[in-house]
Predict the structure of Rhodanese domain-containing protein.
Amino acid sequence: MAPSAESIEMVVEGYTSTDKNYSIISLYTFLEKRISEEQLQNIQSELEAVLQRYDARGTVLVACEGINGTISVPHCYQRDVLLELDNHFPTLRRRLSYHDEHVFFRLRVRVKPEIVTMGSLPSDMILDVANDVGAYVPPGPEWDALLLDPECAVIDTRNDYEIKIGTFHNAINPHTNSFTEFPAQLKIIIQERKPKKIAMFCTGGIRCEKATSYALQLIATDPDIPNIPVYHLEGGILAYLQIVPPLHSSFRGECYVFDRRTALSHGLNPSSCYQTCHVCRHPLTTEDRAGVTFQEGISCMYCAGDSSRNRDRHAERQRQLDLSKDKMHLQQQRGRPRSKNESITV
């Protein structure tokens, strides 16, 4: 069962949650009893109404298999939001970090076929992520031991652009552009490297959890894949960075996150090195942003030559984002979070 809201308060890198104005809640769960198609729309509407009431922003995905998302809320509403989420999803896994302002501009609650998309799988392969996953390994010495084990293939399940700014020492980069490419790459890694065990990790735990479920099915159904132990990092990189101090860490660089902070370092402190291209989501250094191809919200060195992207649409989106920023800053200058009864207009 998920911990109660009372047990959630955490100390991060020398300050408590009460020192920051906003709580960022990363959350997911795979449900043992799947949600029916008929229930999904009702759950989506209920969640959206609840989160709007507490001025939450971010993206939440709901599907028959469960829920996945990251939201930011005024810290004064953190307890209320956690209790509301627990009422809907008692087995929810979550990770908290804190920031001076909202890290998202608006709220989206969407119904999707999957809460994390792995793509098409063989017709005889059915994943039961709620019940059939690899062994959890807590962040710290046990995980570090797997990284140093020559018989273990430790695989980063994230995308290539995420891995470029930080990953674990000795981890394998499968060089994927999306998670849908990962199943094929996992099979190749196992066949080429022939490890005696495999371990996987991701940002917050959801992708590697589903990846281990796939790996177990692959082992059970593919005669070319040996029967080997499968592990994954409990809580993902975020749990590791929150718990393990820099001097004892096997993580190199920073962890990419899908919000305005772009990346987090040890203690879950926001990056001072990177900002995100709002078009292609690639993390950018100060030098990248100074390049001739960079235009805020329109293009960067990684996507400027992509003719499939609509520059006018991105320019209009950037204008709307700038307006949202102005509204957020005005609200913060007034010194209060939005009340529960106010609507969100961005």
